[in-house]
Structure formats: C-alpha cells, structure tokens
Specification:
Radius of gyration: 23 Å
Strand order of the largest sheet: 6-3-2-7-8
C-alpha cells in the first residue's frame, strides 16, 4: 500500500500513525537538509509533540538546496510529506511509525522566492539546519569563512537569485528587518563543537559582506542556540525499503531506519519562543558545552577510530568491527585514557555507562551501518572531532598514542589502496589533493600532516610527529591488525 494521507487509516496496527489532524498543523520551523538524520531526530521529536496534542504551530517545512535534493522533493510530494521511521533493536524487533510533522517541502533551485518568503513569513520562528559539517563553509583549522567559495561569491552579486543556504536565509532575514519583524532563531543541529556559535559566525559574516547594517541587526537581535544531537541513522538502503514492505505491506519510497537510542540537548536561547521540547524528552539546558564535548570526542571520534583501522582490516560493517573484542577494547582505551581527560563534568551523565552503551550501540547488527560511511568526508570530521583531543592532551602532557594512531590510519586509508591491493573509493571534498599527498608519504612520512589547512601547526609538535610516524610506519609495514595488536599490548 502506498504511503500517503489517504491510506493512513488502512495500515496494520503494528505501525503507529499520526493521530493528530495534519491539516491543523501550520509551519513554524523551516528546515534545511531533510535527510535521514533530521527525519529520525528533530522531525520525530516534533511528531511526538503533535501526538500529545501540543505544538500545532510548530510544523516543519523542509527545504532542499542541492541538486541531489530533487529526489526528496519528489518523494515528499508523492507521499504528502509522510515517511516511515523504523527503529531497529539488536534482537531484530522493529518499532515502526509514520511521522507527519513535516507538512511542506520546497526545492530552492525551482523556486528560491518561495523559500525566502516562507522564512520571511511572520509565522516562521525557527530556521533549523542539518547541512553537514562542510555546509558551514568555514575552515576547521582557522575558523574563517571561505569568502572565495564561488557559490558564495555568486550569491553576493547584487540582484542575484540566492542559491546557497546562506544566500536564502540572509535574504529572508533582510526582508524581515524591512518589515519590522524580529529575526527567526537559527538552530544548528549538526555535529560541530559550538554549532550555534559557528552558525552565528558564518551567517553574520555572509550578511556583513552583503549589508553591514543587516549583520549588526542579526548579531544584536538574533539567536543561535547550541545543540547536541545523537541517533545513529545509516543511509537508507534498498533492503530497508524491501523489508518494510515485507513486514508491513507499506510502499514507502524513502523510509528511515535508525537505532532506538536518541538524545537531544538544546540551549534555551530563542528569539520568538520554541516548542515545549522538554515534554518529549529533549534536555533543554543553559549550557550545552559539556554534552557536546562528550558526544563529539567519545561517539564521533570513536567512529573515526574504528573506521580506518576497521576498513583496512577487512571489515565493511560497523557492528562487525565492534563485535571484535580487540577493536572494542581499543575504542574503550581511547575513550578512557585520551578522550575522557579532555571533557568537562557532564551533569546527569554516568560517563562509564555512556561509554559502554556506545560500544553496545555500535555493535547493533540490525543497523548495518557501513564502515565506508564513517570514512567519508574525513577532512571535515577529523579536525573537528579528533584533533581537539590530541591538542588538549599535548597541552596537558596527556596520552596521545591511540588518537594519533587514528590519524595515521586515516593517512594510510587515504592512499586509496587497501592491504590486499584493491582500490579504495575515497569520498572527501579534498580527495584530489589528499590522495596524492597520502601516496607520497612512503617517501616523505610527514607529508600528510604537513597539510596545515587540515592539521594546523601539529606538524611543529615533535611529540606528535614522532608518534605519528611510528604508527604510520607500522601500518605500512605490518598492517592495521598488527598495529592494533601492538597498541593494545602496551596498555
């Protein structure tokens, strides 16, 4: 049965469906980046709120900006913006529901004006973002906004039809200023330390290049709450679509499958109010920093710790890596000895329990998350998630052996040939420069970390360089598994 509004009442009882009247739900949130994570996380929380009879003014209008978002537009239109969310437990059980909190979808390349006016409307009070780490157009090393990005340059031309997220959002803010409306809150939900601060910096920098007075107004009147978000949500595969059909007879063109665990910690900083998210399990706090550091340096950095070593050792699925006792021990050792000392106290969190829960989550065989997904876009992820751990421990004389070995494993992986001589498909926006550099490190062992655009001044630290070259040499001569064994034998 096709998923759409007409067929909701006919689905089997094992699938929960919206019990609220979606025609009464109005748009209060415009969201950029309607992918699997947003639909498994923020949209799910708003759906929970609507199910409780609250928040009808906080419906979501999704926005696609990239050419690849056209397929999502087509699916959203065909399914009345409905989709299925399946939470997959490690024992094979599924918790499945149809989510109805997204009530509209706009595709900016087709109608940028409609997107801008949707945000400029008085009823829109939040613009939220899951545009990935690379979508903020800033250097992880310097923090500087890339003003030379051709897409940014094009959007700054007088009279240009905005095509980027920055151009669209800032144009909408400009119209609100002209109309005497307060700015909407810009709420980043991406995996970046201080994501609200980054959003404030990048959007106000773009606005300043367009109109300095507008930038001052945004900085003075706007709000950019920080947040920490968490739910492992792999890319939807054809197998998920087929199994959904087999279990429930639902024809959903783009369902979402994820793990049962979810967490959202959100700074209470909004210009025009917010949904009562604390009523549906969101931790609304004054300071997100301790929580985001915990997540970025334990969960996200551990994903990188298992990814390259795992791939080079022949694993292709995340749960297979983490069900290997040696890899599980390596991850716990990294978290205990190197990541945890760099964290702040985290109110209400038992860190020992949290770390063991991470291993359990990574080991869930039903999620079937791919190692390749974790290896993608490393030049964005490593500088934000792992290098801060190394820097902090270098400053304080702490351990760096395992975290530096992870950097070396990335460098070895970036050679784009595995230990069996098979090619590796490197997915990274800097691929064309990273792969030649990585391949040159057989003759020049520090070539990869000499890339200051990625690693900053770490190349100048003798302790880091010595540890890095030791681990890289082992990876090249002995392989990933033997290198891991050697790391664990010295604990």
């Amino acid at each position: 049965m096709k998923l759409n509004s007409r067929n909701l009442d006919d689905f089997i009882e094992d699938v929960a469906v919206p019990t609220y009247d979606r025609s009464d739900v109005t748009v209060g949130i415009v969201h950029f980046g309607v992918g699997g994570f947003h639909r498994a996380h923020q949209a799910m929380y708003i759906d929970r709120l609507l199910q409780q009879g609250q928040g009808s003014e906080w419906g979501i209008c999704g926005v696609g900006v990239l050419p690849g978002d056209r397929r999502m537009k087509d699916v959203m239109e065909a399914q009345n913006c409905l989709y299925t969310l399946a939470l997959k437990h490690s024992d094979g059980a599924w918790d499945t529901r149809v989510v109805g909190s997204i009530v509209e979808y706009l595709f900016a390349p087709d109608d940028a004006e409609a997107v801008v006016e949707k945000m400029a409307a008085e009823t829109t009070r939040i613009v939220s973002l899951t545009i990935t780490e690379g979508g903020y157009n800033f250097s992880a090393t310097t923090g500087e906004f890339d003003v030379e990005n051709p897409a940014i340059v094009a959007d700054l031309v007088d009279g240009a039809v905005p095509a980027t997220t920055f151009g669209l959002v800032v144009e909408a803010l400009s119209r609100r200023k002209e109309r005497g409306l307060k700015p909407f809150t810009i709420m980043s939900c991406d995996n970046i330390e201080g994501n609200g601060h980054i959003a404030q910096s990048t959007f106000t920098t773009f606005a300043r290049l367009k109109d300095p007075a507008l930038a001052e107004w945004i900085a003075a009147e706007g709000a950019f709450p920080n947040s920490m978000v968490d739910r492992i949500t792999p890319v939807t595969t054809p197998e998920v679509i087929e199994e959904l059909s087999a279990r429930y007879a639902i024809d959903d063109q783009w369902p979402v499958a994820g793990e049962p665990f979810t967490q959202w910690v959100l700074e209470d900083n909004f210009t025009l109010g917010r949904p009562p998210l604390e009523d549906v399990g969101v931790q609304v706090v004054d300071d997100v920093t301790p929580y985001e550091l915990m997540k970025l340096r334990l969960l996200n950095a551990s994903h990188q710790a298992l990814a390259y070593f795992g791939y080079l050792s022949g694993f292709r699925l995340v749960h297979e890596v983490c069900q290997d006792p040696q890899f599980a021990a390596f991850l716990l050792a990294y978290m205990d000895e190197e990541a945890t000392p760099t964290l702040q106290p985290v109110p209400g969190i038992d860190l020992a329990e949290y770390k063991h829960t991470l291993i359990e989550r990574f080991s869930n065989p039903e999620i079937r998350d791919t190692v390749a997904r974790l290896c993608a876009e490393s030049s964005d992820r490593i500088p934000k998630w792992l290098l801060p751990v190394i820097r902090k421990n270098l400053e304080g004389g702490g351990e760096i052996t395992r975290s530096t070995a992870v950097v070396a494993s990335w460098a070895r992986y970036a050679e784009a040939v595995d230990e069996a001589g098979e090619p590796i498909d490197i997915v990274d926006q800097l691929r064309d420069s990273l792969v030649p550099i990585a391949r040159s490190q057989r003759e020049n062992p520090t070539a990869f970390i000499a890339n200051r655009a990625v690693f900053g001044d770490l190349i100048d630290n003798d302790r880091f360089v010595a540890e890095y070259t030791k681990q890289l040499t082992s990876l090249q001569k002995n392989g990933a598994r033997a290198t891991l064994e050697a790391l664990m034998s010295t604990r």
